[in-house]
TrEMBL record:
This is 5'-3' exonuclease domain-containing protein. Keywords: Hydrolase, Nuclease. GO terms for molecular function: 5'-3' exonuclease activity; 5'-flap endonuclease activity; DNA binding. It comes from the Eukaryota. It holds the Pfam family 5_3_exonuc_N. The keyword Hydrolase applies.
C-alpha cells in the first residue's frame, strides 16, 4: 500500500467497547448474533497497535462511537480538504462512501473515495456500484431502508420491488424528499403502504446510514505520516 498509493496518512480505526453506541440504543439486538471475538485474537490487539504505532500508523478509537462512523467522518473531512481516500475493509457498509474516479458528473480533479476488499482482492469504484444497484453510492442507505438488508435484519416495505425503489429514489433525490412527497405518487396503494411504514423506514435508515459528521478524535492535520522501513 505504501509503495502503490504513497499515502499521506494511514489510520486503523478500532471499535470501542467502553460505551453503548447509538445503534445499540436504537436496536438492542444490534450485533448480538455475532460470534464473540476469539480470545487469542483479542490478546493480539494491543501488540498489533504497538507495531502499527512504530510505523507511525495512526490507531484511533473513541468510546461511544462505532469505527464505521469515525471512518465515514474522516473520509468526509479528507475529501473536503481535497484528498483522495482509500478504504480497506470487507464491510459492505462502506460502499455508501465511495465516490468519483470515473463519473461523468464529477470533474477530473474531484476527490476520489475507493474501497478495497481484501477478501476478494478487488477495488470497488463508483461505476461498480452504479452498475450493481442503479444508484449513486450515497443513496444505498436510502435503498436499504426501503428494500431491507438481509444481514442487518431490516424489513422490506411490503410489495416494493427493487427497481421501483430505485426509480423513486432517483426521481426524488433520496429517501426523505420521497417521504415528504408521498401524496404525489400515482400509485395510491404504494403511497398508503409507505405512509404506514414510515417509522420502520426511518429506523432502518438510521441503522444503515453511516454518520459522517462526528467529532474526530484526532484532527487530520495532527495525524502522523507513515514511516515504513
Amino acid at each position: 500500500m505504501d509503495k502503490v498509493h504513497a499515502p499521506q496518512h494511514i489510520s486503523v480505526v478500532f471499535d470501542s467497547k467502553q460505551r453503548l453506541t447509538t445503534r445499540g440504543i436504537l436496536q438492542p439486538s444490534y450485533k448480538r448474533d455475532r460470534a464473540p471475538t476469539p480470545r487469542s485474537l483479542v490478546s493480539q490487539f494491543a501488540y498489533a497497535k504497538k507495531i502499527l504505532e512504530m510505523a507511525n500508523v495512526n490507531c484511533i478509537e473513541c468510546p461511544g462511537l462505532e469505527a464505521d462512523d469515525i471512518i465515514a467522518s474522516y473520509s468526509t473531512q479528507y475529501t473536503a480538504a481535497g484528498f483522495d481516500v482509500l478504504l480497506v475493509s470487507n464491510d459492505n457498509d462502506f460502499l455508501q462512501l465511495v465516490q468519483g474516479g470515473d463519473s461523468a458528473n464529477l470533474s477530473a480533479t474531484s476527490p476520489v473515495v475507493e474501497l478495497y476488499q481484501p477478501s476478494k482482492r478487488r477495488y470497488v469504484r463508483e461505476r461498480n456500484i452504479r452498475a450493481r444497484f442503479g444508484l449513486h453510492p450515497k443513496l444505498l442507505p436510502d435503498f436499504h431502508a426501503l428494500c431491507g438488508h438481509k444481514w442487518k435484519k431490516l424489513p422490506r416495505v411490503d410489495n416494493l420491488a427493487d427497481d421501483v425503489a430505485v426509480q423513486l429514489l432517483t426521481q426524488y433525490g433520496g429517501l426523505y424528499p420521497l417521504l415528504r412527497h408521498l401524496d404525489e405518487l400515482d400509485d395510491s396503494i404504494l403511497c398508503n403502504t409507505l405512509k404506514r411504514c414510515i417509522t420502520s423506514i426511518e429506523s432502518s435508515y438510521r441503522m444503515v446510514k453511516l454518520v459522517d459528521s462526528v467529532t474526530l478524535p484526532v484532527a487530520i492535520e495532527k495525524l502522523h505520516q507513515p514511516q515504513f522501513k
